[in-house]
Amino acid sequence: MVPIFNEYIKYLNDNGIDLGLEEGTYWLDNVTIKAFDKQGIERKLYKIIVSDDFKLSYKKYNLPQKVINNGFETWEDTVNRNEKHLRKIEENSINLIKDRCSKYPDSKKVILNSTGKDSMVVRHLANKSGVEFTNYLTNSTIEYGESVKLAKKLGFIFMHPQKERSFFEWQKRTSFIPTKLHRTCCTYFQERPTLEFFDKNENILFLLGMRREESKTRSQYEYDWRNPVWGKKRPWFGLLPVLMWTEFDIWLYILMEKMEFNPLYRMGYSRVGCLNVLCPFSKKSVWALDKYWYPKQFERWRNIVREDFIKNNKWIATNLTLDEYMVRWNHSEIPDEPSKECIEEFARYNNLDFEVAKEFFTQYCSLCGKPIRHKYEIGMSIKYLGDDTKDFYCKDCFKTKYDFTDEEYDERVMAFKYRNCDLL
Prior knowledge:
alpha/beta, single chain
């Protein structure tokens, strides 16, 4: 949950939603506005609904009249109620930092800091530990301006991609649209800059702000952590001081300590980093924030997505119309079969008869029988089996057949794209 600040209230008001909210009491949990009653019980108040054309509406939850009459806790009340717990987890985290620093006394001390809430709390805890760390920010070239400004103000050292000048130049050259199922942008613009920036032979202790609550994968992490992409030879060690903290803990601690934080959170964002409008893991409600706060960047990316859809005939890969794809380009909610409207639109754009157009939607994996959803899957099959192949394989079956890992498959797709292969 994120505190609701005046900037987000303005966003709601400008989109036709006036709920009478004031800063200092309310919380945003994804798309649900909440508050704590005087007994400390979490209460749902409103749900913000975002349509496919990014229009906002809301649903009001019913509350007992007694709760309404008694009012709600302020943030200060909630902090005071949780202060003992916050001081306990603070102490534990600071002790972890001190202990690992004594374990690796000769290591370079580094905080990988995105200027997000978790990274900033780690920075604050490190400062309290008395150990000197240097903060580094990976400039993916698609960071929000607020993040860059805050990092510069606080004296962070910037790491830049070595092989790619900018995300948009890379995207234009490769025609790559990241999806939930297939993405390499994090590798090129987040992980590789770290590998390239630091000496692979230098002893380094990294502090990172990852938490178990964030994902299923991270729920398996321990305090001591190594990124697999570092390899086994680098003498690099990771520590996750806020691993067991919840997002709510993080925010209560920020409020209790009166910490400086990224202004993006005031605007309604729950995470910072790359522009959300081009992140396949962002939700429509967050894209709506980008549309309001960053309209130029919002339209720039949507124009790229629109042009890519038409150029690459993605009606076939997605079973979606162009308008449907514009809110599902990240491959969320892909239908099993194309609608009549989808086939008609594909036929119209390609000057085809409807019956002829239908034939383009009938490619299935030769092993598992599932529909082929992506142009790159068809392209990889042709590249490896020849232009006259009658066999096509989905990504999973292709990896099994040729004994590829995810990374190896993705690297081959990208290699063909670099060569301007029209098949992919």
